[in-house]
Structure prediction request, 173 residues.
Amino acid sequence: MVEVSGQSFQSIGEAIRSVLELLEKLLPGSSVFVAHFDEQAGYFRVIDARADGSSYPVESGFSIPLDSSFCFHMAARRAPQLTGDAESDPVYSQLPVRERLDIGSYVAAPLELEDTTRVGSLCAISRQLDAYEEDDLERLAVMARILSFELERENRELDLRRNNEELRDQAIS
Prediction:
C-alpha cells in the first residue's frame, strides 16, 4: 500500500489500475472494482475491475440501476461498508444483484470529493462468507481517498486548461 500511496500518477485511469492490481493481490478470491454513480442517467457503472481466477468477473462497463447496487446504498449510508453475510443484511438481501452474482461478502469505500459529494465507490465482493475484516475496509478507505484525490486533481487541471483557452480566445478577440 505504501508503494501506491506514494506514487505519482499521470491520470485517474493509471491510479485506478494501480489500486485494483494491489487489491487483487491483497484480496484473493475477490472481484475488486471501481464504479461511478451516474445519477443523471440513474445507473451504477463499473469503470474498471480485476478478479483472480477463483472468483467471478465483474467487467468494465457492467451497469445496473443505481438503487439496485450495493455501492449506491453503501454510499447513501443506508447499508454497511462491510458485511460478511450479504444474504442476512436487511438492505443487501433485497437486491437482485446479490443473488445473481452470488455475493456472500462485501466491502467498499465511497469515492468522495472535497465537497462531500459521493461520485462512486471502490469495492470488493466475494462468494465466500466472512471474506473481509476491518483491516480490509481500512485499506479500501485509504485507496478510495487516493482515487478521489487523483480525480479532483485531474478535474482541476482540466478546468485550468479550459479557463486558459477561454482567456486566450478573449485576448485574441
In short: The beta strands are 31-38, 43-51, 63-65, 82-83, 105-112, 118-126. The first helix runs from residue 2 to 5. The mean pLDDT is 88. The CA atoms of residues 33 and 49 lie 4 Å apart.
